[in-house]
Design goal:
Layout (H helix, E strand, L loop, with lengths): L5 H5 L8 H15 L8 E4 L1 H13 L6 E5 L5 H8 L3 E5 L9 H7 L4 E7 L11 H18 L4 E5 L22 E6 L12 E5 L6 H14 L7 H10 L7 H17 L11 E5 L5 H10 L5 E2 L8 E5 L4 H18 L1
Parallel strand pairs: 2-3, 2-4, 4-5, 5-6
Antiparallel strand pairs: 1-7, 6-7, 8-10, 9-10
Helix pairs in contact: 2-8, 3-4, 3-7, 9-11
Length: about 325
């Protein structure tokens, strides 16, 4: 700010975003994932929500078009998809919250425009393995040939950097050419209120230039003139910053170890900062009400696509996680 004219950081950028910022992002992706992206493969947005809405609008050509979503899922997906004129087709969750390939195979049809995945997942924290992503990619390639149409794989990745395993999550374009990534720095840099992210159209995507043109047209139609200019400059300078996730890891371990000892069923999260806990009697609404009576706030699972689980967020002070455990223990005893 000190070294620039206010027009640089307060004025409009191009609709696609400052070239220097897109160069920095492309360079970071190329270095980390051994790719060859150019700035023209990127469109800067007002966060992942804008990225998703733009992508859904860009891909939707008919009210018959379907976007397949895997439960458990971020509740806004349904609003975003239907708001852009498509239909959401839901694949039910597995008990372990892993990728439900059987459900996907039942859901894919001639109206399928795309499959949307979110790994690390909100609300479960589950990270899909490379084997799962390969199985999904192989199946989609098979169905593209069988149906003689393009099926896109949309990867919603606001939690990509928040992973507790030593091995990073699969980079989807390594497995599937027709990939579109929707990214946000809201979680990795803890900037949720600043609304900055991007759409990446994979460089091997079929008719990439047409898809990118549709992304730009959709952004214009939705009124996204440009992503916040000041934070484009921030991202350009902070592109290689890595988040410190040790506080999240500590909170996860305290809660996961404590809850499973009490008898709660929960998939161990390998990323993000959520636990998706099965209510002892399968009634997440009732359990959420009981927890609230003890000043513990959890989210019932209906909005995430399953009535049996509750979401607990642990992006809080560790002391709060420790204090919550006796409440969960008391609640479990009430069900026994």
């Amino acid at each position: 700010v000190k070294n620039n004219d206010p027009m640089v950081y307060h004025g409009y950028s191009t609709s696609q975003g400052h070239l220097s910022c897109r160069k920095a992002i492309a360079g970071n992706l190329n270095k980390r994932f051994k790719r060859e992206y150019s700035p023209n493969d990127l469109f800067l947005t007002c966060g992942a929500a804008a990225s998703l809405c733009i992508t859904f609008r860009a891909l939707t050509a008919s009210p018959e078009d379907e976007i397949i979503v895997l439960a458990p899922y971020f509740p806004e997906y349904k609003v975003f998809i239907e708001g852009q004129g498509a239909r959401m087709r839901l694949v039910p969750s597995r008990n372990d919250m892993r990728l439900n390939m059987d459900g996907i195979k039942e859901a894919v049809n001639r109206n399928t425009k795309a499959i949307l995945i979110n790994s690390p997942n909100n609300p479960s924290g589950v990270v899909y393995t490379k084997e799962e992503i390969k199985a999904l990619s192989d199946y989609l390639m098979e169905m593209q040939e069988e149906l003689d149409k393009t099926i896109y794989l949309i990867s919603d990745e606001p939690y990509r950097e928040l992973v507790y395993n030593d091995e990073p999550p699969a980079f989807i374009p390594d497995y599937y050419d027709n990939t579109i990534i929707c990214y946000s720095w809201s979680k990795s840099l803890s900037l949720p209120g600043e609304r900055i992210g991007y759409v990446l159209v994979n460089d091997k995507c079929k008719e990439k230039e047409v898809v990118m043109a549709a992304v730009g047209g959709a952004a214009r139609a939705l009124g996204y003139v440009c992503a916040p200019t000041l934070f484009q400059l921030v991202i350009e300078r902070c592109i290689d910053v890595k988040p410190n996730i040790e506080a999240y890891r500590k909170n996860r371990d305290i809660l996961y170890d404590g809850l499973t000892r009490m008898g709660y069923k929960v998939a161990k999260p390998d990323g993000a900062f959520y636990l998706f806990i099965e209510a002892p009697d399968g009634d997440s609404e009732e359990f959420s009400k009981k927890a609230k009576e003890h000043d513990v706030l959890v989210v019932p699972g209906a909005g995430f696509g399953t009535d049996t689980h509750i979401r607990l967020s642990y992006c809080v002070e560790t002391e709060k996680c420790v204090k919550a455990l006796p409440v969960f223990e008391k609640l479990m005893k009430e069900y026994k």
